[in-house]
Amino acid sequence: MTEVSLSIDAQGLASSEFNGLLSYESRIFETALGSWPGEALRALALDCAIADCPLLARTFWMGGRERPRCVLEALALEILRLHVPAEALSEAGAEWWVQRRPGGRSSMLEKDFVERATSPPSLQRKRARLNLAEDMSIGPRSHRLDWHFDKDEELAAGTPLFLAPQLSTVTYLTTFGGPTVVLNCVAHPMSGEPTALAPLFSDLPQGRVDGADVVFPTLGRHLKFDGRKMHAVVPALASRTAQASEDQPRLTLLVNVWIGHKPLAVEPFPNHFLDKLSPASGPLCLFRPIDHGTPLQPLPLDSGPRLRLIPGDDKEEQDKDLLPPRKKTLVFQPPAALANWSGTLPPAVSLKTSNDTTQAPPIALFENKQQVTS
What we know:
globular, 17% helix
């Protein structure tokens, strides 16, 4: 057994003197991808299809001071350097992966669903602990991504710890498919239980959450948000003209920003597959030299919260093998203003239960820094 020693700060993140220098507010950025020639975009899409192969690891690592070997690593590195101060790069890294829906790794999900149903009870319990919520109403399995928290998956599988990255990002490589919905709640790192940023879940009727960010895919759009927040892809919210398909997939590059911790078992893209990817040939200049992004457009909810966390049935809640029980369903009901959106670009909005759009400071989950060994 490998011993892992972690220092966790008051916000539940891996301790680093640079945590306080980051911006945790959800923001969008417009990248240069929208002006790339069609040939370059087709090459990028082929790279993504290769990287999303189910025979490979799910995610890959790119250190902040390393030299990129392929275009995908170059993109991940530019995203990391956009959000992390230069002085922090020596202890920072990007955990990156791609998603092609439908197709790619998602084509294996139906098989995985069958394997879950027929796997031993002990393995089912482990998987249930790692999957917070599965809402079958949000869209076809191969198109959607259920409600979840980004975290060090290997650490969460072997310990009670749910350690999140400092930041999560999504870069949209097509304009198809459902939006990314980011809820205003985080997982407590010592239990994995949802904790609303403001107010707490327990203070809201029926487990309602007080707000969410909703960002629709647009070629070249880049979303950055607090890496501790619960989120999902909700294809049921996509308009008919934007529905993803095999010919028009929802294609995204995901980059998690880590400082002071490298996720266990996450390694660089394998050398023996590198010759199948487009080689890196210099800076891609994805972002403007000084780019702080744009806050999401505030959009008040019609009449109170529309985001609810519904506990599982009583039998499941009483199953002592699921400690703590986490099988729950999240229901997301968007306001009419979002359904009737008439803007030029697909919306990128922040849903609020009031007109207050100020950014609250990161929630303190502990009184002091915690030292954890497992």
